[in-house]
Design brief:
By secondary structure, this protein is mainly alpha-helical. The protein has one helix at about 10-60, and strands spanning about 105, 115-120, 130-135. Helices cover about 35% and strands about 5% of the residues. The protein has a three-stranded antiparallel sheet with strand order 1-2-3, with helices on one face. This is Type II secretion system core protein G.
Length: about 140
């Protein structure tokens, strides 16, 4: 009388149903946290870039232009308007990428303020609802 050892089909199915129920309860919370973490990173990066741009303007009297871009925080721009007191070593160590792998965009003069700094969002398209900029940080 050999008795087979192992799990019955019913036992395996009960375990699969329990795992499925747990996944439906946990996954939405985990996935929502990733989106929230990405938005928090964008906010922190934009604040850091705004601070560096403020220092640039204090030293040089103007913000970098859209054409000079955020790269002006790393290396002295050679195009007009040339900075008059550019800080040796630049204003920031490196330019961060947004959580979606894109560079942040600088508009100077901006549409919403003196300068607009924004992430193109997950779709990487300007002017869409998922753009996160220094003009809409509070609501995100």
């Amino acid at each position: 009388m050999n008795k087979a050892k192992g799990f019955s089909l019913i036992e395996v199915m009960v375990v699969i149903v329990i795992i499925g129920l747990l996944a439906t309860l946990i996954l939405p919370n985990v996935l929502g946290s990733a989106d929230q973490a990405n938005r928090q990173k964008v906010k922190a990066d934009i604040v850091a870039l705004e601070n560096a741009l403020s220092q640039y303007k204090l030293d040089n009297g103007v913000f970098p232009t859209t054409e000079q871009g955020l790269e002006a925080l790393l290396e002295e721009p050679m195009s007009e308007p040339r900075p008059r007191n550019y800080r040796r070593g630049g204003y920031i160590q490196r330019l961060p990428l947004d959580p979606y792998g894109s560079e942040y965009v600088l508009l100077s003069p901006g549409e919403f303020g003196d300068v607009d700094i924004f992430s193109l969002g997950e779709d990487r398209q300007a002017g869409t609802d998922d753009d996160i900029g220094n003009w809409n940080l509070e609501g995100n």
